[in-house]
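In response to reviewer comment 3 from the previous cycle, which asked for concrete evidence that the modeling workflow produces usable outputs, we include below a single protein chain processed end to end. The sequence was submitted unchanged, and the resulting structure tokens are shown without manual editing.
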Amino acid sequence: METYRYPHFDAVVYAAKFKDVKNAEVLRSRIVKAASLDGAEGEAERDAINFAFIEAKHITSSLHLETAIYQALLSESQGSLRTKTIHSEIIWALNPTNNISEAIKLFGVSSRTTDLILVHAATSNTCDVQQKMHNIVEGLLVPMSTIPDSTSWADVKKHYKLNGEPALKEVAGDSNRERAVIDNIVVSTVAMKSVMT
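The workflow returned the following structure tokens.
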């Protein structure tokens, strides 16, 4: 698990990557159910799953993820969240369009998810975040540096509409350079999203 500190936003963000996730469908169901539960039971369930659940195969690098986190924190600090929570805002920031339903479909957990990134944003250090992650995810915690190992580069190119990108044509045949160019474009897209909307 990695910890990112953003003192200018008074925020601490925790991120962890899991592979070989066995309970993605259960997680998705819990997220949906928690939104409609009332009372103490609803509060307890929302607290237990208070994370952004991100499909790791659509993330190109730690910088890609951190840029979305930063954009969500910036929106929250300006009182301009486009979604209901900071965690859904992170997922929205990752999507190249402004459609939150599409963002959740592409970047959220699905029944087919096997590699998952969890993100938790808080206003202070929280000592039990990793334990909460382990309590809900049936999978193996791996270093965040393994993000590119899970990336479906073809899917990323499709979702960000990069198949006709001239910069990629210049590096065709060199997969390392192509992935670096894709990552640069994707990170820039996420960084510019709030400016363009």
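Strands lie at 2-6, 11-19, 52-55, 116-122, 140-142. We consider this sufficient to address the reviewer's concern, and the full set will be provided in the supplementary archive.
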